[in-house]
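Re: the request from the purification team.
They wanted to know what the chain is likely to look like in 3D before they choose a buffer screen. I agreed to run a prediction and write the result into the notebook, where they can find it.
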Amino acid sequence: IHVYFQILELNLDSCRAPSIDGLSEEFSELESLSLINVGLTSLKGFPSLPKLQKLELSDNRIQSGLQNLQGCPNLTHLSLSGNKIKEIDTLEPLKNFSELKHLDLFNCEVTQLDDYREQVFELLPNLKYLDGFDKNDKEADEDEEDGEDGSENEDDDDDEEDPDNDDDDDDDDDDEEGDEDEEEYDDEEDEDGVDEEVGLDYLQKEDIEEDSEGEDFDPVDGENEDEEEEEEEEDDAQRGTKRKHEDEEEGDD
């Protein structure tokens, strides 16, 4: 098994070669290929690379021959900046690349044509960014420039939004906890109020009991007075008996 089958990215920048040489279909798993400033004047013999998505051909001397890239139908990013492309018609072969979203033609003479951008977007209706900007002159995101899928960016955006939602959920939880704490605090105040009322009732009850004890004590004082009266009557009776005896004795005498 050749090691070529395992290569996903290949960078051959500044490896001088006027034509495609040494690059074959054995690189069938290749997804990204960079051939910047290698001196290419022709794309004749470009291999069929069905999984290739990003192709860098900047700063070469390519004038035409883009039909030689037909073996790479899944291209999404193609950079031809700094080449010798002069006419819009030279880009006609790119109409067959339905997945092509990014095309760079910086420093090519074709960019000097009137209505250059409008003509390219009309020729390639599936194209999203030309020279880093869309139809409305909105700049492409860095992730998209690097060749990452926009759907992944959306997922990242969703992930970024989720922490905010978590914070909102946390805030809601905090609010709910605060409400529970307030309710508990109110319940405690109610309980304290009940205790205070019970305490007042208890003190009033003690006063009532003290009053009742005072009332119970009065009969005892009355009984003592009755006993004293009885003792005085007994003394008076004894004195009367004694006087009677004395009178009888005087009569005998």
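For the purification team: The chain is about 45% helix and 5% strand.
Please add any questions underneath this entry.
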